[in-house]
Design brief:
β3 and β4 form a beta hairpin. The chain contains eight helices and eight strands; from the N terminus they run βαααβαβββαβαβαβα. About 40% of the residues are buried. By secondary structure, it is of the alpha/beta class. It binds dicarbonimidic diamide (C5J). Dicarbonimidic diamide binds next to α6.
């Protein structure tokens, strides 16, 4: 499919969609992103494109993995190097309007309703920025023979970029979908897009939702319902 720095080789098998941290904590007022002083409304703009990709992958029977960033209730998996950062009014583990900030299972930790996963879709809870650190994502991908990842979600320069770098180090061929990822800082988003595709695609490819949907439609067929 058309991509930068050159066309992305969409495979016939082994493709998965990764949706990073589209959880209320980052996207709705009262969550972690808001507590850190960010304008969370900026992130909502990508929801229709992420949704369109989610629906397409479902239609073609291709695997979808969603991550949520969160910690155990006793915060034993949240080092001080993470909890102590930021000047926000609320820190990780503190009680906010959507429950305890960035704690697994709290209302704020839920994936936004628009992108709610189906019961058969895998959710990967992750304590770090990268989706491979202290998770079983790699095991899931290997078990399903996944080699190529379409990466979406928030925030571009933090959890999305970290995950793409981790994936590239592990041998996955990654495309970051430009209009299905967002940051609280537009300049950081653009810088990240430039970084991943620089030096002839040192981390991978970037591309847009519409050409990806067209390429998927050409390459995959929806399973026939009997
Ligand atoms: C952050 C994320 N920004 N999902 N998490 O702390 O990017």
């Amino acid at each position: 499919m058309p991509a930068q720095p050159y066309p992305y080789p969409l495979p016939n098998t082994g493709l998965a969609l990764i949706i990073i941290d589209m959880q209320r904590d980052f996207i709705e007022p009262g969550g972690f992103g808001h507590a850190l002083g960010n304008d969370v409304s900026l992130l909502r703009s990508i929801i229709p494109r992420v949704k369109a990709l989610q629906e397409a992958f479902r239609r073609y029977g291709l695997p979808i993995f969603q991550t949520v960033e969160g910690h155990l209730p006793d915060l034993s998996d949240c080092p001080p190097s993470k909890r102590d950062r930021g000047n926000g009014s609320l820190k990780i583990g503190d009680r906010g309007p959507m429950g305890r900030i960035l704690v697994l299972g709290e209302p704020g930790n839920a994936i936004i309703p628009e992108l709610a996963p189906l019961p058969n879709e895998v959710i990967i809870p992750k304590p770090g920025k990268g989706a491979f650190y202290a998770t079983d994502l790699d095991a899931h991908l290997k078990a399903q023979g996944i080699t190529h990842l379409i990466i979406t979600g928030v925030t571009t320069e933090v959890c999305v970029q970290t995950t793409m770098r981790e994936a590239n180090d592990r041998g996955y061929e990654c495309l970051l979908v430009e209009d299905a990822t967002e940051s609280y800082f537009p300049a950081f988003k653009q810088a990240t897009l430039g970084m991943v595709r620089a030096q002839d695609g040192i981390i991978g490819w970037t591309g847009f939702t519409e050409p990806l949907l067209s390429a998927l439609a050409l390459q995959y067929k929806a399973p026939v319902m009997t």
